[in-house]
Specification:
Mean pLDDT: 76
Structural class: alpha+beta
Distance between the termini: 93 Å
Low-confidence stretches: 283-310
Shape: elongated
Number of strands: 13
Helix content: 25-40%
Length: about 300
């Protein structure tokens, strides 16, 4: 009887030892798998962030070229029209119409005198209208440095279109303020550039003014975010702007889509183009990329170009 009990006890010990080894092996493999999954997730996230920053730089370089082209248009108009008040308004407007047809997305070219009165425009219906309350007139008029390029926040125009205006002061012989020459850019001006960077269906990219107003986005979602302000306290754009860094990676819940994302931002200043006002890509630029399914955690990315001009 005692011998049978000893055999049973020994058998149970052996069984317990075997199961202990199995459990330990499973736990060990589980830890290894967890470490591998975490490491794989971290590496995938880093590769994704690097890809988004590289993509943002491509958009950044193209944006530089576009803004420099706009700057040259305004400079050429200023050189051709040194004394706008002494020229026939119809001739000036004809010249502006020719210039406006050179670039897609240019809605309007106009010249305001020092009182803010439109004296010439590529759109006849604007001539004679007073725009002395618009940012694109008041900001260059009141600026101490009138040799710079000024960019307005997005706004709805007299013609009910949503635009950003870029303006340059017209100066007299003594450096006195004589008015502005301005160009209105529609979202379409940047939209083609944004769409060209989309490489998967879940990517998003948007151009946002530094005050947080979304100017254009691609692809367009079911609910439009155009005109929405995304620079709220503790938002990803807010933290990027507060960091004052040229580029940064932010993460958190998107204010536009409601899910968690990783945001890659780049602050841009085009060479040879001295801008005072600001744009932001949310490179806000929002470019969003989901990590592949099957990970222990799911992350999203948003690549944003911030063209904050100070």
């Amino acid at each position: 009887m005692r011998h049978a009990n000893n055999q049973s006890f020994t058998s149970h010990r052996q069984l317990f030892g075997a199961w202990s080894l199995v459990v330990a092996a499973v736990l060990f493999l589980g830890v290894l798998l967890g470490i591998h999954t975490f490491w794989d997730y971290q590496m995938e996230a880093q590769r994704l962030e690097a890809r988004l920053l590289a993509q943002a730089r491509v958009v950044d370089e193209n944006l530089n070229a576009n803004l420099n082209s706009i700057n040259l248009i305004l400079e050429n108009i200023k050189q051709e029209l040194n004394d706008v008040s002494g020229r026939d308004a119809d001739q000036v407007s004809t010249y502006l119409k020719k210039q406006s047809r050179m670039f897609a997305g240019v809605k309007t070219l106009l010249i305001l005198d020092k009182q803010g009165l439109c004296i010439a425009s590529s759109r006849d219906e604007l001539v004679g209208k007073l725009f002395n309350q618009r940012d694109y007139f008041t900001t260059p008029r009141d600026s101490s440095d009138k040799n710079r390029l000024f960019m307005s926040p997005p706004f709805k125009t007299y013609l009910k279109t949503f635009v950003i205006n870029i303006s340059k002061p017209i100066l007299g012989k003594q450096g006195d303020f004589n008015g502005v020459v301005a160009v209105s850019l529609s979202p379409e001006y940047f939209h083609a550039l944004l769409e060209s960077t989309i490489y998967t269906p879940d990517n998003r990219i948007a151009l946002v003014h530094a005050d947080g107003t979304v100017f254009t986005a691609a692809p367009e979602g079911v609910t439009s975010i155009i005109g929405k302000n995304v620079n709220t306290p503790n938002s990803q754009l807010f933290h990027h702007l507060q960091s004052t860094k040229t580029s940064s990676i932010q993460s958190g819940r998107s204010s536009t889509t409601g899910d968690k994302r990783i945001f890659a931002y780049i602050t841009n200043t085009p060479p040879g183009c001295d801008l005072t006002s600001s744009l932001s890509w949310q490179p806000a630029a929002m470019l969003i990329r989901h990590l592949p399914p099957g990970k222990s955690c799911l992350a999203y990315t948003c690549c944003s170009i911030c063209c904050s001009r100070q």
